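Lab meeting minutes (informal)
Scribe: AK
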Amino acid sequence: MLLSLLWVFVSLNIVFADVLSIYTPGVLPQVMEGVVEGVALSETLMLIAAVFIQIPLAMIVLTHLLPPRGLKLVTTVAALVTAAFVIGGGSLKPHYIFFASCEVLALLTILRQTWRRDA
């Protein structure tokens, strides 16, 4: 149950970091123009982002469905990929750094909990 709750925490932080980013002064006009902080928005980029965002969402359910051995492997890969997405795809705005720090701390806790289990 703890792993699932931590994945919910990570997922919500990802969502709210993005929501608050839209309210940062000057960002909404960039979104409307299709280029945010020098990154061109495209359908392909949105699909890639959707795949990365789906990983922690899927882990909420998979923590309850996978056998312990499979869970260890899948959780490790999911946590590392999600951390790379959060760190590599983020911004240096203070609110984002705060959210990303919370997400990475939760991901490290997920990894620690996963590897402490007997499986």
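Next up, CB showed the second protein from the same session:
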Amino acid sequence: MIVKRTITKDDISEMPKVTFDGKIIMICTEKDAERAIEFLNKYAVLGIDSETKPSFVKGKSHKVSLLQVATDTHCFLFRLNLIGFPKVLIDLLENPSIVKVGLSLKDDFLALHRRVSFKQQNCIELQEFVKPFGIQDKSLQKIYAILFGQKISKSQRLSNWEAETLSPSQQQYAATDAWTCLKIYTLLQELHQTGDYVKEEIVEPVIEEKEK
């Protein structure tokens, strides 16, 4: 497999769209959270992401509205604006036996810590994880496009994540982001173990000297 170092927005625009095709489960009560964590604790690696209601007023911000946690087949959407931050969810993030994979995790955790204090453990930051493979881009959309030749839609990014009911498009968007983090990690782990990849060579332009 040839791993590109970078990709352009024009390249991505021509690619087919990827969407999570597994089961999306909304978590709106603490009881729901307990059942979800019981399921997630069976997995060794999980993809995670978060969403926050955008603010269009200078100086005003909102707390994290949603935390997405994905396996290959399921994605749980924890509606933090409704349920707060249950202890079982803290226990999951602090569990050193489960790998949590995401992108821009520093920002995610800074925002999550505004809700509750906890010490996340065994987390993989994809922006750092991709570097040994020669990938220079840092956005989830570009990293995924480089590796899979598909684009992640960002059309719902600035939607209202504290709406009474999240639309099917919002749910799909949120689940896809967490799930694609997991897919990237899984593929790169396989490539690392097999060595079955090469970095795309960057050809520097030749600048000819002008005749004096």
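CB comment: The chain has one domain: 2-199.
No objections, moving on.
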